């Protein structure tokens, strides 16, 4: 075990305001709320505003992560941004995030599909554990909507936009990434890729083909990805748990990539763990690619499902094909501003849930009254 751990000391999320529901999609392509819900578990997703770029979403989640860690942007030693939908093809989005944040450090982008943020978390951890850096920001952002074909029902119902970030800092107590696995299988490139616009099919030479065949958009062989995901997710999670000398029963929370509820259910079955131990927020956001796992982690913290000292397993998979898993221990120790935010988030969540339940009760009561009145009118 290392003497220096990379503890997660701050976290933040940002989700754009615009919501695209299944009902909205029913008006755009031949689909139905019933099909999308039963096949994927998704009810709605959030999409960026036209002038909201990958860097803007990143800065918003990063600023929250920095505030909760009690750091200024100028304290950062390194910024890593995981994304497959950067502002420009060149350069990577990380330097734009560095500039917009006002940080004065090195930065780079990791592109590993939906697995990107877990890759970035592992990479950031190495810089802390080696003693090279003290304050590392790890951002996961995707605005997949810009590259999604809203005429293709097989992909457009799945994706949404979001960002989530964490700050890593050194700790002498066990915390952060304890064990990990990074995997790839490039033979599966064509199962999930954007065919046009790269060096194989440059825009200049293939303009007509790209536009006529809509090759500038994401293409997916859903069943191949589904099989790959269900095969990989549980086996990879089992390996990292085993490497940590633990059993699945020792894990408080599993945070899988939110690509399809059926994939998460299959993972729970294969791990022989109850679904309740798996964080699920796919119904609200769909697949937010590199933001998916950190967004689920931040919401788990806000909902009180992940407490100091808890052990989590994160697992993501996606384009490449790639996958990445890690056992992550939530840090224990001193009271930090992050924990205050965590408590506020939890209080907000509990308040919202109480109000929601009260509204449900009132609604049920009113409906019962209406029903009774209708019945007594019928009898008269
Ligand atoms: C995409 C996915 C939801 C499709 O579910 P599925 O059960 O495999 O469905 P199929 O692809 O077999 O399609 C079944 C039928 O539904 C149709 N269909 C596809 N999308 C549809 C939609 N949005 N609405 C209605 N029907 C749809 C298909 O055309 C097909 O019709 P057919 O039988 O007449 O040919 C599923 O394959 C999946 O989740 N794959 C993994 C995707 C993923 O995780 N990608 C990101 C990885 S990071």
Describe this protein's structure.
The protein is an alpha/beta fold. It has one domain: 3-Layer(aba) Sandwich (Peroxisomal Thiolase, Chain A, domain 1), CATH 3.40.47.10. 42% of the residues lie in helices and 21% in strands. The chain is built from 12 helices and 13 strands. It has helices at 22-28, 33-40, 54-69, 94-101, 116-129, 153-156, 203-212, 222-243, 261-271, 282-285, 292-302, 337-379; strands at residues 5-14, 18-21, 44-47, 78-82, 106-110, 136-143, 161-171, 176-184, 192-193, 219-220, 253-256, 311-318, 322-329. The chain starts with a strand and ends with a helix. The structure holds coenzyme A. Coenzyme A is lined by residues 31, 35-36, 39-40, 114, 153-154, 157, 192, 220, 222-223, 225-226, 229, 259-260, 287, 318.
Topology diagram in text:
Elements: E1 5-14, E2 18-21, H1 22-28, H2 33-40, E3 44-47, H3 54-69, E4 78-82, H4 94-101, E5 106-110, H5 116-129, E6 136-143, H6 153-156, E7 161-171, E8 176-184, E9 192-193, H7 203-212, E10 219-220, H8 222-243, E11 253-256, H9 261-271, H10 282-285, H11 292-302, E12 311-318, E13 322-329, H12 337-379
Parallel strand pairs: 4-5, 4-6, 11-12
Antiparallel strand pairs: 1-7, 2-3, 6-7, 8-13, 9-10, 12-13
Helix pairs in contact: 3-4, 3-12, 8-9
This protein binds coenzyme A.
CATH architecture: 3-Layer(aba) Sandwich
Biggest pleated-sheet summary: 5 strands, mixed
CATH T-level topology:
Peroxisomal Thiolase, Chain A, domain 1
Q: How many helices does DSSP assign?
A: 12
- The counted number of beta strands is 13
Question: Which key features would you list for this structure?
Answer:
380 residues; Peroxisomal Thiolase, Chain A, domain 1; four-stranded mixed β-sheet; 13 strands; binds coenzyme A
């Amino acid at each position: 075990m290392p003497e220096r751990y990379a503890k997660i000391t701050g976290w933040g999320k940002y989700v754009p305001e615009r919501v695209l529901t299944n009902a909205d999609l029913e008006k755009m392509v031949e689909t139905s709320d019933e099909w999308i819900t039963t096949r994927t578990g998704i009810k709605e997703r959030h999409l960026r505003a036209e002038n909201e770029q990958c860097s803007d979403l990143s800065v918003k989640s990063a600023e929250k992560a920095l505030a909760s860690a009690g750091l200024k942007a100028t304290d950062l030693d390194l910024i890593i941004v995981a994304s497959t939908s950067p502002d420009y093809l060149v350069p990577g989005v990380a330097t734009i995030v560095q500039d917009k944040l006002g940080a004065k450090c090195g930065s780079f982008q990791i592109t590993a599909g939906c697995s990107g943020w877990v890759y970035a978390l592992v990479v950031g951890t190495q810089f802390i554990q080696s003693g090279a850096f003290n304050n590392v920001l790890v951002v996961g952002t995707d605005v997949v909507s810009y590259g999604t074909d809203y005429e293709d029902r097989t992909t457009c119902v799945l994706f949404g936009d979001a960002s989530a970030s964490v700050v890593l800092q050194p700790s002498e107590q066990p915390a952060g990434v304890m064990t990990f696995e990074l995997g790839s299988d490039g033979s599966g490139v064509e199962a999930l890729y954007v065919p046009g616009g790269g060096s194989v099919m440059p825009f200049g030479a293939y303009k007509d083909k790209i536009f006529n065949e809509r090759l500038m958009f994401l293409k997916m062989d859903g069943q191949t990805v589904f099989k790959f995901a269900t095969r990989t997710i549980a086996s990879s999670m089992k390996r990292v748990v085993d490497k940590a000398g633990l059993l699945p029963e020792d894990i408080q929370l599993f945070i899988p990539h939110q690509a399809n509820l059926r994939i998460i259910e299959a993972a729970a079955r294969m791990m022989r763990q109850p679904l309740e131990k798996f964080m699920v927020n796919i119904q609200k956001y769909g697949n937010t690619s590199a933001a998916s796992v950190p967004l689920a982690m931040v919401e788990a913290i806000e909902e009180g499902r992940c407490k100091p000292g808890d052990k989590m397993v994160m697992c993501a998979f996606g384009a490449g094909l790639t996958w990445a898993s890690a056992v992550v221990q939530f840090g224990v120790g001193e009271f930090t501003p992050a924990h205050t935010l965590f408590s506020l988030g939890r209080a907000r969540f509990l308040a919202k849930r109480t109000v929601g339940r009260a509204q449900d009760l009132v609604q049920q009561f009113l409906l019962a009254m209406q029903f009774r009145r209708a019945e007594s009118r019928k009898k008269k």
